[in-house]
Design brief:
alpha+beta, 3-stranded antiparallel sheet, about 110 residues
């Protein structure tokens, strides 16, 4: 499960934007305990005004997963979609995500 994800200088996203699935506790059926005392939401909703970057946030997340599943020979491809509306063309895009494996999915050896 995704714990959090952020992106900066990608498509229309200039400043760092973050999605976090961390929950404070087991407040509903939409929350799963993935480790002792660590709770994550099973569902995330992006909302905002038109042209606020919702779709671009999902495109960035998709690009990260695409790089994770590509064969190693193709994984050296770079994502060339920096924020082009301002003077940040020379600044690279940045993104990061953290994930956690659910405790019930872990196997012991």
């Amino acid at each position: 499960m995704i714990r959090d994800f952020w992106v900066k200088n990608y498509l229309s996203i200039r400043d760092k934007q973050e999605l976090s699935f961390l929950a404070k506790g087991p407040s509903s059926e939409l929350v799963a305990e993935v480790a002792d005392g660590v709770f994550l939401y099973k569902l995330g909703i992006l909302y905002g005004s038109n042209a606020s970057g919702k779709s671009n946030m999902l495109i960035a997340l998709n690009e990260v997963f695409r790089l994770l599943v590509l064969p190693k020979s193709d994984a050296s491809q770079t994502i060339m979609a920096v924020f082009r509306l301002f003077s940040l063309k020379t600044t690279p895009s940045r993104c990061m995500f953290h994930s956690m494996q659910m405790a019930s999915d872990m196997t012991t050896m």
